[in-house]
């Protein structure tokens, strides 16, 4: 923890492009990210006594406090740094989604902005990691909602349902990413069922050709039928992925792809 704190004190004020694009600074940042990723393989870090035991999650989350403000668009142009940052983010989201949702609001918004940019801007590997991180957060959110627990991240995930809806239907989509995309999409739909219905209705209303509109409606009814089981168990995920594959194959040809 002390190492991360020291790095933070030395670097939090150095957020200009001139500073962070220096090779030495970038290498330090890369080493810190890799260190935090490796720490996540340990549940408890033992520094010699009961009083000195620290949760690996707490160290990683503190590290994110330090790192996220430094991850500008210029820094993310460095492929290795970009990849390692999204790897760390995905690990934390997968292993400690509840802790992620309790990050300070500004920090969490910055993190989610990074994930949104990661969906489209840095290649398929980063897109996959961003989808996996979203899936973990949305799954945690849905499971908590089922227990009638209020989840701080619920509202912001609604925005990502729209983002992924447009990404899958209205933009060029790499079908090699179907599995992580399907899992994230299903989890987001489970979190925001009514909003998903609004998105479908809005897309249908935009169609000027009634034949196309009916084909699209039929396809949506196959993808998410009214009696669809809202569950994130393995069988439901597999079935939804297959349905999404068929759905995209049937509608992408006549929807406007940007």
Automatic annotation (TrEMBL):
Entry's Gene Ontology molecular function annotations: nuclear export signal receptor activity
Question: Mainly localized where?
Answer: cytoplasm
Q: Which GO terms describe its cellular component?
A: cytoplasm; nuclear pore
Q: Which InterPro entries match?
A: ARM-like, ARM-type_fold, XPO4/7-like
Q: Where are the transmembrane segments?
A: none
Q: Does the keyword Cell membrane apply?
A: no
**Subcellular location(s) of the protein:** Cytoplasm; Nucleus
Does Lipoprotein show up as a keyword for this record?
Answer: no
Give UniProt keywords alphabetically. Answer: Cytoplasm, Nucleus, Protein transport, Transport
This protein's source sits in the domain of life called: Eukaryota
The Gene Ontology biological process annotation of the record reads: protein export from nucleus
Recorded family membership: Belongs to the exportin family.
Q: What is this protein called?
A: Exportin-4
Source species of the chain: Desmophyllum pertusum
